[in-house]
Amino acid sequence: MSISLPTPNIAHLTEEDYEHVYEPAEDSFILLDALELDAQLIRDDQPTICVEIGSGSGIASTFLSQLVGPSSSLIISTDINRYACEVTLRTAQANEISLNPILCHLLDPLLHRLKSNIDILVFNPPYVPTGMTELMDTQNQRDIGGAWAGGQDGMIITDVILDKLPELLSPIGKMYLVTVIQNKPLEITRKMESKGLVCKEIIKRRAGRELLSVLRISRI
Amino acid sequence: MVRLITHNMLACHVKNCTKDNFPLSFSEVELVIRPAPENLEFIQRFLPKLDWPALVDTARSLGDESLPEQMPDQWTEDQLKALHHVLMELHVEEGNMTCRGCGHVYPISNGIPNMLLAEHEVGR
User: Fold this and answer.
1) How does it associate, per the subunit comment (chain B) (predicted)?
2) Nearest residue of A to residue B36 by CA position?
3) Which of A35, A88, A198, B7 is surrounded by the most beta carbons within 10 Å?
4) What does the alpha-carbon distance between residue A72 and residue B84 come to, in Å, rounded to a whole number?
5) Domain A22-218 class in CATH
6) CA distance A170 to chain B (A)
7) Each residue of B60-72: pLDDT tens digit?
């Protein structure tokens, strides 16, 4: 059974916006395609709390909102970049849905309350392998560079979340994570399985020089 | 916009701040009421995720007295509608959220809560 959903409208975003916020590209679209592949599964679960880390343009949060249906889930979108939070809000308005952007690092202010409470977690992380200096600089600048620089194996930021994932997911919880081959998805899978989670690559595609995939990590 | 459903999920995360770090108290708020499509099935499904005393206190601090002190065991449709209004329709556009434990102030501007901390305040 396959469900087809329209791509969110982002025509309101300008060149100027894209100087500060990551413009949706192949990695954004493979994430939407992964969510669409799982649309029936996600709907059947009736997720109550969904969180996207690093929402950028807001395209994935908006897509998720449209997928689960309006007013049927709380969708929280975090970003370390103020401009991204504002753009996420504008993308929600342009698509007539409701998002809740929070300016913060990863999930920091939410960890206290969202333990074992996240039903869907979406993360298209800064996955490009870079030196540690570039990673630290781009995170501190809280601007567009933070959208890609990922440090060693492109995994420094992602690992912070993966280490906490077992305590974050609800009993029906699922995480959708964008990876490139340099992130060593097989190692991620082994690591998550050692924590008692199930990890499955649900879509894989080459885009230019990048071999992209989306992993679904869940309790069951 | 910071709706109360979102506010109920936010805690202070300053290093070593573990006492009274939730809920954050609102001050100097610009409150806007915007009708939201009603989905009472969702509101009901959300009940176990709520910290009820925090929600009641916060709603009252904003002048909304519609919620009962104790979370009802059995909900009437009118009670669920009142809860929908409090959770989904009250928007704090501008203002501050202050930690009752350590006093840290998190500002809200243009409807976006700024929960970033300076490097020396971070507990990670």
Assistant:
1) Interacts with TRM9.
2) A71
3) A88
4) 12
5) alpha beta
6) 11
7) 999 999 999 999 9
- Domain locations in chain B? 2-114
pLDDT, tens digit, 9 for 90 and up, residues A14-66:
999 999 999 999 999 999 999 999 999 999 999 999 999 999 999 999 999 99
Residues A104-123: pLDDT tens digits? 999 999 999 999 999 999 99
Given pLDDT bands bounded at 50, 70 and 90, which one contains residue A7? Answer: very high
Residue from B93, B78, B76 nearest B7 by CA = B93
pLDDT tens-digit map of A67-82: 999 789 999 999 999 9
State how far residue A127 is from chain B, nearest Cα, in angstroms.
Answer: 21
- pLDDT confidence band for B124 (50 / 70 / 90): low
What is the distance in angstroms between the Cα of A75 and the nearest Cα belonging to chain B?
Answer: 9
Measured CA to CA, the distance from residue A123 to residue A16 in angstroms comes to 24
Q: Does A93 touch chain B (CB under 8 A)?
A: no
**The model scores a pTM over 0.80:** yes
Question: Dihedral through CA A35, CA A38, CA A43, CA A45, nearest 10?
Answer: -110
Give B29→chain A minimum CA distance, Å: 17
**Which tokens hold the place of B113?**
């809560």
Was domain B2-114 assigned CATH 3.50.50.60? no
User: Which of B9, B83, B117, B124 best probes binding to A when mutated, by most A CB atoms within 10 angstroms?
Assistant: B9
CB contacts, 8 Å: A72 with chain B? 39, 41-42
Say yes or no for a CB contact (<8 Å) between B10 and A105. no
ipTM of the shown complex: 0.96
Does an H or E element contain A27, and which? helix A26-37
